[in-house]
């Protein structure tokens, strides 16, 4: 492979010397440790003219040239040396590599210890009855607001449950064969937005518990809604996504139609600059807020084989999106929206109805429905980024329709078709061992510089 025996820097030449080398080196990358950089700089910058003194004969000049242009081994001086490093010069680097491996193992062991101290609960912390909840995969009728109030639609009735004082309040009962199909609290919890079967999008005042506005724009049921500041985004069976400015008289500020079937999932990033939408035609679209008015999307992911309702943006990396497919797909997929590519795909063997990221540990919780295997009706925990399964909870007697988490990110509530709400202390409490990790980091930082 290395046919360099005619060159002074060939492996054969090198190995014949007392110095032993690990490898012949990269012929394209110079080995600076073997160069005389001072001599090279002198030759490059020397602008003096060559003056020959007649008093010096040719033999003298030849000796002087050899002294100036040959290296210490008597070989022609080269500004760029392409050859292997002596084993002695690799010793320190190999030692550094060994220390780095020890550090990585120590950090991994520390991480595992912190991680395995956590256990999935054996049962729920609380169970509430949810009579007449609609067994509809495509709706989104539960949301836990930052005011610690859980809003949930049970058939045509809308209820509010206060998690602090445990009071239950019936907000309204829909009439004329209408019923809520989507619910979402605003970020400041001043408003509760409710989408209906008959295409109505209603805004309620949280303080007075009264309706204050109806937002027009859709022609069919509104399956999903999501807030972005004062912008309320809605997705409908009419395949449109509409951005409403709740402050403006003319509420529709943009309207796009890219999905070929009902829009059943919407999620804004925490930075509020990108929107993910999932449809019943199995596609995911990623939108830039600035470009939505021109109907130009950033990406379209078509890898799912069933409807995509479950969407969740990673809280640790804003470029990572998690999505879950319906019964014929049964996969959780992670996407890199910066690159527009798939990161991984996990076959859960069950319909994915909901996804929630753990903000305190690097984990993802999924809620499942129909399955041809024994994995139906479960909640499953996945470790991120490896996506290895930590465990499952199978207390629901029917499929898990909806998932959401408390404002502090410690409790998750699941709504099942078995007409129950089950509360799980599955995301916390957060680990308070930062001092141990900090001490370990400080110790490691003294061992080796990150710059080689």
From TrEMBL:
One Pfam assignment: WD40_CDC20-Fz
Taxonomic source organism: Glycine max
Record's keyword annotation contains Transmembrane: no
Mapped WD repeat ranges: 181-214, 256-289, 393-426
GO biological process: anaphase-promoting complex-dependent catabolic process; cell division; positive regulation of anaphase-promoting complex-dependent catabolic process; protein ubiquitination
Coiled coil (residue ranges): none
SMART domains from the UniProt entry: WD40
Keyword tags: Cell cycle, Cell division, Mitosis, Repeat, WD repeat
Family membership noted in the UniProt record: Belongs to the WD repeat CDC20/Fizzy family.
Protein name as catalogued: CDC20/Fizzy WD40 domain-containing protein
GO MF annotations in UniProt: anaphase-promoting complex binding; ubiquitin ligase activator activity
Gene: LOC100787876
